């Protein structure tokens, strides 16, 4: 059963990663469409890819990964770092969705620098996750103070404008 779950997780991660890497190249084509029909076709393709392909794959990747956590009881510092990178992929996924909403309004465009940046960030996240999973490096454990009740509140207090001094 775990092997099937792992295979599902790997396939979903691969598809989600491919989507995050490919969508910016579709966005940058917004500047090169000539007619209203071409713009409508590009918008339909981008929305279909994001809503019907990439988003379900992201859900399956996260759900199957969560199931694997409980099935395998993985507790290691490298795994915590991997989860942080997955959080980065999730954040990039949400930003990608916001681009889908805004990009096809009248006069909008997707600059080349943003295409390069989005592609590099996605590639760095995917490669970082891949390296962590395959290498399983021996990272130092987090300080014990992080696991004390209220530690996150104390750590983030200087950044919170509503925190009482």
Automatic annotation (TrEMBL):
Record's catalysed reaction(s): protoporphyrinogen IX + 3 A = protoporphyrin IX + 3 AH2
This protein's pathway: Porphyrin-containing compound metabolism; protoporphyrin-IX biosynthesis; protoporphyrin-IX from protoporphyrinogen-IX: step 1/1
Record note on cofactor: Binds 1 heme b (iron(II)-protoporphyrin IX) group per subunit.
Cofactors named for this entry: heme b
EC assignment: 1.3.99.-
GO molecular function: metal ion binding; protoporphyrinogen oxidase activity
Top-rank taxon: Bacteria
Compartments, as annotated in UniProt: Cell membrane
Gene Ontology CC annotations of this record: plasma membrane
Family matches, as InterPro entries: HemJ-like (IPR005265)
Positions of transmembrane segments: 6-28, 49-71, 83-103, 115-134
Membrane topology: Multi-pass membrane protein
UniProt function note: Catalyzes the oxidation of protoporphyrinogen IX to protoporphyrin IX.
Annotated family: Belongs to the HemJ family.
Protein name: Protoporphyrinogen IX oxidase
Organism in which the protein naturally occurs: Paracoccus yeei
């Amino acid at each position: 059963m775990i092997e099937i779950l792992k295979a599902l997780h790997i396939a979903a991660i691969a598809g989600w990663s491919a989507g995050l890497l490919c969508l910016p190249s579709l966005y940058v084509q917004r500047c090169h469409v000539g007619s209203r029909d071409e713009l409508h076709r590009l918008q339909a393709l981008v929305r279909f890819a994001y809503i019907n392909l990439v988003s379900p794959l992201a859900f399956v990747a996260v759900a199957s990964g969560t199931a694997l956590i409980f099935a395998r009881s993985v507790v290691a510092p490298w795994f915590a770092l991997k989860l942080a990178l997955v959080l980065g992929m999730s954040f990039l996924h949400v930003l990608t969705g916001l681009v889908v909403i805004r990009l096809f309004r009248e006069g909008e465009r997707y600059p080349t620098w943003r295409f390069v940046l989005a592609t590099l960030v996605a590639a760095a996240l995917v490669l970082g996750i891949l390296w962590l999973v395959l290498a399983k490096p021996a990272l130092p454990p987090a300080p014990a103070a992080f696991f004390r009740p209220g530690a996150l509140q104390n750590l983030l207090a200087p950044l919170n404008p509503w925190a009482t001094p």
